[in-house]
Amino acid sequence: MYRIFNHYVSKAVSSLLVLELLILVGSFYAGAGLRFFHDSPLILPKLEHAFLSACVFAVAMVFSMGTLGMYHLDFRAGLLKPLLLQLMPAFVMGFCILTLVLDTVPGLYIDRGTLMMVLLVAGSGIALVRVVFLKTSDSAFLKSRILILGSGQLANEIGELALRQSYRKYHIIGFIPVPAEPSCVAPQQLLQLDAATSLLSLARQHNADEIVVSVKNRRGGPFPTDELLNCKMSGIRIIDADSFFERETCQIRVESMQPSWLVYGGGFDQTTLRTFMKRSFDVAVSLCLLLLTLPVMLLTALCIYAEDRQPVFYRQERIGKDCKAFHVWKFRSMGFNAERDGKPQWATKNDPRVTRVGHFIRRARIDELPQIWNVFKGEMSFVGPRPERQHFVRLLAEGVPYYNVRHCLKPGITGWAQVHYGYGDSVEDAVQKLRYDLYYVKNNSLLLDILILIDTVKVVLLGAGR
């Protein structure tokens, strides 16, 4: 795993992304050269801003492939199905984006024949590199050998998590038991330390790349702190169970997390520069979204009014940054007076209170668009944790540890939890969503906001990811 702007990106994904960017840029020149092969060789150099056009082409295609999930790698899925279901639609989406961009930006124009030839070359190159990448997925570069210190319930969960990974392969060398901890793993997986064998020699003997410390109580007996330090000084990575879970799932495991991990760990960077960049990003993206969706919002308002002639907008108090209350604006997706008894209710996935128009606008997230006004006012961000009502905030803060940590950032129209988890209608769902929210709060950056924006497009277009 590489850590880029606090966000974990796997070696497989980052290597594939860089390689495909280079292939796409090269395909632009190769495709244009083949297009003009029978013409004068002086035509190709006359393409204005050829390198800039090639970069725009590469970025548009990577955006399209990312939106359709081609960088959510699953080596177990094989090759044929992802290529047929993702590559071809991604290229169609990329063609539409490029047609719009290249026709409207001066100096970037490319005729349709040249663009089709470039896409043909690029498609062949992407398919080839994916085949090679799949065939070499067992290479040492993409596989990591790990030792797990501990043999209890937490260690067993870490082992199962490592074996479940679809985009990165782990080889678990074994589990090293510690005193006063009941074993929850198979006896044949245990590796014993004795007076003649140190942790460092054992790690070197098995060529371990990493040691995962998975011991819940490190004060109940002798803990090999000095030996772990020797391993680290010898170049072997040391990581605790909470950090391993964060890295592999892009969540934070709130159930077993210690407060010291939050206090002394990295992340939670709220600098003036970060705040300025986030505010600029919010305004720019929301303004573009407003211009693009204005016809959709006008049509939605007409449909809501035509269905039951009640108020088009819905205004409700929510809790924002620093637990301050504000009023959020949404298109009304439920019938009028949906809470007749005055008692707040969870919004469920198939809520019977939702109208016919409401079913569609909730599924497409059109009901969230009026919150752009909240973003412009500075009450919300475009990306952030979902704002909740005061009643549910009190309920969840009492029963869910660290729940109020999510309120150190402005809530968002979309967010890490919104694109990875569905509508929550229970405390258990709130815990699962909090895992994603805390990961975003801890590691928020402009890069992560852009990735969430791409995932949001995927959710809206394909209904996937939530």
Write the layout of secondary structure elements.
Blueprint: E1 2-4, E2 7-9, H1 11-35, H2 50-67, H3 80-104, H4 112-135, E3 143-149, H5 153-164, E4 169-176, H6 199-205, E5 210-213, H7 225-233, E6 237-240, H8 241-249, H9 259-264, H10 272-308, E7 313-319, E8 325-331, H11 356-363, H12 372-377, E9 381-383, H13 390-399, E10 412-414, H14 416-420, H15 427-443, H16 446-462
Parallel strand pairs: 3-4, 3-5, 5-6, 9-10
Antiparallel strand pairs: 1-2, 7-8
What does this structure look like?
By secondary structure, the chain is of the alpha/beta class. Helix content is 50%, strand content 11%. The strands form four sheets. It has a four-stranded parallel sheet with strand order 4-3-5-6, with helices on both faces. Helix 13 (390-399) links the parallel strand 9 and strand 10 (412-414). The chain is globular, with a radius of gyration of 26 Å. The model is unreliable at 40-46 (pLDDT under 50).
In short:
By secondary structure, the chain is an alpha/beta fold. It is 50% helix and 11% strand. The protein has a four-stranded parallel beta sheet, sandwiched between helices. Strands 1-2 form a two-stranded antiparallel ribbon. The protein has a two-stranded antiparallel sheet with strand order 7-8.
List keywords for this structure.
466 residues, 4-stranded parallel sheet
The helix count comes to 16
Overall average residue pLDDT: 82
The unreliable regions are 40-46
Principal-axes geometry comes out as globular
Q: In total, how many beta strands?
A: 10
